[in-house]
Amino acid sequence: MTAHLHDGPRPAQHFVRRLVASAAQPYRQAGHYAWHFARGKLGGDPAFAGLLARGLLTGRRRILDIGCGQGLLTSWIFAAQEAARQGGWPAAWPAAPAPAQVHGIELMRHDVDRANEAMKQEVAAGRARFTCADMCSADFGQADAVVILDVLHYVPVAAQDGVLRRVRAALPAGGVLLLRIGDAAGGLPFRISNWVDFVVTTLRGHRLTRLYCRPLAEWQRVLAGLGFEVQAQPMSEGTPFANVLLVARVPEPGQSH
């Protein structure tokens, strides 16, 4: 049975609040803005707690975060690992992620600098790595799990397909791609999410002229065409958006599609 945030509501909610504070804490050394952004994003975006509650990164040793921003997912994962080590992990949740390394790729240099400053101990220990590069040409290496949250729609469709092909090549049998997208067939919630996207990315220094969005069914078709087995999970709980998390797994040998 899949565990959700509302399984054992009070303990899980209290735990998430404590985890947000722990994961945001390293960003104090990266500056006032970095810390406040970390607290707001980690606490307001259901994807972070959802990844843990559903065990989607459990057992993954090499995690690649494409479009990592200032490295929030990395901080979140290692804060979760430490919280589990200290006890008090929600009983209904799968085990905390325990990767050997999280590699983040980000286009914006100032975000990479913030990530390196906040995560400098993990970077020095080789547990975290941040690369300033364009996802359309960056070396993805090999990974057991690839995470792409709300990023692909910034580049044209042909470039999106190119990134997805290279992600598939980076994953072994049993690997997983966690891709959050806005469903272009989502009506008003989709339009709201697009408007918020323009505002937030402008504040972060991006200059957008348009977004390249697709309906959920088309995303599923493209991923299936690359050999993934795809499940769609809602990922906008507590928000007015039309976000969906696509859990795309590479089949094991002998496994039917």
Automatic annotation (TrEMBL):
Keywords: Methyltransferase, Transferase
Domain Methyltransferase type as annotated: residue spans: 64-177
Biological processes per GO annotation: methylation
Pfam family, one: Methyltransf_12
InterPro entries listed in its UniProt record: Methyltransf_12, SAM-dependent_MTases_sf
Molecular function in Gene Ontology: methyltransferase activity
The keyword Transferase is assigned to this record: yes
Name of the protein described by the UniProt record: Candidate SAM-dependent methyltransferase
Species name: Ramlibacter tataouinensis (strain ATCC BAA-407 / DSM 14655 / LMG 21543 / TTB310)
